[in-house]
Specification:
The complex is a heterodimer of chains A (441) and B (228).
Chain A lengths: L39 H9 L3 H14 L2 H12 L10 H8 L12 H21 L9 H25 L19 H31 L4 H63 L4 H20 L8 H16 L3 E6 L6 H21 L4 E9 L4 E9 L14 H13 L3 E6 L5 E8 L1
Parallel strand pairs in A: 1-2
Antiparallel strand pairs in A: 2-3, 3-5, 4-5
Chain B lengths: L15 E6 L3 H12 L5 E7 L2 H11 L3 E4 L8 H11 L4 E6 L4 H10 L3 E4 L4 H12 L4 E2 L1 H12 L9 H4 L3 H11 L4 H8 L3 H17 L2 H10 L4
Parallel strand pairs in B: 1-2, 1-3, 3-4, 4-5, 5-6
Classes of the chains: A alpha+beta (441), B alpha/beta (228).
Protein name (chain B): Response regulator transcription factor
Keywords (chain B): DNA-binding, Phosphoprotein
GO molecular function, one term (chain B): DNA binding
Chain lengths: 441, 228
């Protein structure tokens, strides 16, 4: 499925800027959020980078041309995996679970999906009828009915996790919690109607088939027999299915809770407990205690709330460099990034230069904190990366940067120029220092 | 670590009346202790620990400023703002949080908070920020400015949407960038050769755009960052 021609990401119009992050081709998964039916079309559209309506149109058009398309859709529905849930950092998960943040609820699609199934089915029947191939074929109506019924029941199976667990016990951000919590009662009802409808349709299909073999006169009897059979199966199987589902749900929850607890315990042991022990031993050195506390806070916060930027991006590298300087020099470094980009060799040098600038500021300026701001800006050709390192310390006159300030000359300016970038230093006695690093990537 | 500058607020007499909202008792006690040392400027008139108690305390005291935690039992800080503003639209909110999740910070701002500072802020800066918010100014920390630039940068290619609301003007972007670089309002004014008042106007208008801006764009931004 990966041999599909490369779609064009170019946008029409002369002013269209390059998107900050060029779209990455996603894995082929069914889309839950935009699904009308099973999310197959939306998933394919997402994968190819096409508009969803186009893929849908293709499907509908092909379905009219050849009924096989419906089979293809069904097969894709089964084969395409569900999207893997978006992981959230533990702190946000916890906050979501305890109702401490607002969660955005996607619209409830179940009604739309059911009606889509019904409408498509109805339309197909009508079309087939108009083409004169409908009622003539004895198998046509039973197959249509059965397909509709199976479709309804499948929709059900697709939704199952949402109903069998209450949201609070499921990891936040997984598909399940993104469904509305309040309408559980209403959803149960919808679920029942769906299953009932599906089974009725299948029963009807069986009855029709039987009747077509045994003659129309037998129809009421056959219909009743198959209805009774379906109902009987449902009644007998219901308690068993229910219990099975409950047990599955309970086991899943238990495993989830145990996993979370183990993770949490391991992390707390590795980080917070160690730091607390260190703090107790160094209780008479306030500066050391403050440094330890700050490092621990930064580490814990990163673990709880961090974006999942890969370790190889500019943002991650700058944050790491800032943390190192903070630890070494005991001066807080505040890193703010707008946009992000994968590190290249040049950008690694830029991060090194920025780190040197932070170290200088921490060592010489006497400022209480250092601000670092990085921006990745799309331009006509490639991205322009700018990093500003600023302190409000005592500053200096750049004209008399003597030989003892080798750091500035070679580590910052020289390094940037060697890699095709530039560094500008702005400083005056009493006004702090700002070093601006710039590079095209 | 805000960029708030001390500036006299002549028309106001007496300390600002403040309600403190946070679900951690220890933190409330700490902030109360800090602010009581400046009792001529700030007076704490109430506290809240979740959405319900906070709304009750705020409506009972009608303070000038509410210091609001972003994460709060019962629906988060945004919920408090919505409920209070339904009856008392004049109460100002300043978000105070350790949470660095961009989505939550932007969410509270969009709900109506006039600024965001982190809990590691110094006492003096916090008092300055309270005064700023009380006089209807916006308090943008470098971090918030970064979030805002990030949020709006995704929407610059959309010409079809209402331009006035969904884009930052060139000047507003410049101001935001300088604030993100750690400049105070005064330093921004000097850098751009404009008055502090003009800087404040730009910042307030960014805040307004953020609060009115097309929901779709910001949601898309959050989705792209896997925040929703």
């Amino acid at each position: 499925m990966t041999s599909v021609p490369e779609p064009s990401y170019q946008q029409p119009g002369p002013v269209a800027p390059v998107p900050p992050n060029p779209p990455v081709r996603t894995r082929l998964t069914r889309s839950r959020s935009e699904a009308w039916l099973g999310g197959v079309a939306a998933g394919i559209a997402d994968h190819l980078g096409w508009p969803t309506w186009l893929v849908r149109l293709c499907f509908v058009g092909l379905a009219f041309a050849n009924f096989l398309t419906i089979g293809v859709y069904a097969v894709l529905w089964i084969l395409m995996p569900e999207p893997s849930p978006v992981e959230q950092p533990p702190g946000l998960q916890a906050a979501t679970n305890q109702g401490m943040r607002q969660s955005t609820r996607p619209k409830n699609v179940s009604f739309g999906r059911v009606s889509a199934v019904v409408m498509v089915g109805f339309g197909l029947i009508m079309l087939a009828r108009m083409l004169g191939m409908g009622p003539a074929n004895a198998f046509f109506w039973p197959i249509m009915l059965a397909a509709l019924g199976v479709g309804l029941v499948w929709l059900q199976a697709d939704d199952e996790p949402a109903v069998s667990k209450s949201a609070a016990e499921v990891p936040a951000g997984s598909e399940q919690t993104r469904r509305p919590i309040v309408s559980v009662g209403g959803r149960k009802w919808v679920e029942a109607v769906r299953v009932l409808g599906g089974m009725t349709l299948i029963g009807g299909a069986v009855a029709l088939l039987a009747a077509s073999q045994g003659g129309v006169g037998q129809l009421p009897l056959v219909a009743m027999v198959s209805a009774l059979t379906v109902a009987g199966v449902a009644v007998v199987a219901a308690p068993w299915i229910l219990r099975y589902r409950r047990r599955m749900a309970a086991a899943y929850e238990e495993k989830l809770i145990a996993d979370t607890r183990a993770d949490m315990a391991a992390h707390l042991h590795d980080s917070v407990l160690q730091t607390l022990a260190l703090i107790q031993r160094q209780a008479d050195d306030p500066k050391q205690v403050a440094t330890l506390a700050r490092r621990q806070e930064r580490e814990l916060r990163a673990w709880l709330y961090a974006d999942q930027a890969g370790p190889s991006t500019l943002k991650a590298a700058l944050t790491e460099a800032g943390g190192e300087v903070e630890d070494e020099r005991g001066v807080p470094v505040e890193v703010v990034c707008v946009g992000d980009i994968e590190l290249t060799e040049g950008l690694r040098a830029l991060v090194q230069a920025a780190r040197e600038a932070m170290t200088n500021a921490a060592k010489h300026s006497g400022a209480p904190f250092i601000d670092v701001y990085a921006e990745v800006e799309p331009t006509g050709e490639g991205e322009l990366v700018q990093v500003f390192v600023r302190d409000r310390g005592k500053g200096f006159d750049p004209a008399d940067v003597a030989d003892d300030r080798m750091g500035v000359r070679s580590s910052i300016v020289g390094r940037m120029e060697r890699h095709g970038g530039s560094a500008k230093i702005r400083s005056a006695p009493g006004e702090g220092t700002e070093i601006r690093l710039e590079m095209k990537a | 670590m805000t960029n708030a500058q001390t500036e006299p607020t002549p028309e106001h007499t007496g300390p600002w009346r403040v309600v403190l909202v946070d679900d951690h008792g220890i933190f409330r006690a700490g902030v109360r202790h800090e602010l009581e040392q400046a009792s001529d400027k700030v007076e704490i008139v109430g506290e809240g620990e979740d959405v319900a108690t906070s709304v009750k305390a705020i409506l009972a005291t009608v303070p000038d400023v509410v210091l609001l935690d972003v994460h709060l039992p019962g629906g988060g800080g945004a919920e408090v703002i919505k409920k209070v503003h339904a009856t008392q639209p004049k109460v100002k909110f300043l978000a105070l949080s350790v949470s660095d999740a961009a989505e939550d910070v932007i969410g509270v701002i969009r709900a109506g908070a006039r600024g965001y500072v982190t809990k590691s802020i110094s006492t003096d800066d916090l008092i300055d920020s309270i005064g700023r918010v009380a006089t209807n100014d916006a308090v943008f920390s470098p971090r918030l400015a970064g979030f805002v630039l990030d949020a709006f940068s995704g929407s610059i290619d959309v010409a079809s949407i209402d331009e006035d609301l969904d884009r930052l003007s060139q000047r507003e972007r410049e101001v935001m960038k300088l604030i993100a670089r750690g400049y105070s309002y005064k330093e921004v004014a000097k850098e751009l050769f404009i008055s502090i008042k003009t800087v404040e106007t730009h910042v307030s208008s960014v805040l307004r755009k953020l609060q009115l801006s097309n929901r779709y764009q910001l949601t898309k931004w959050a989705t792209d960052r896997k925040l929703v």
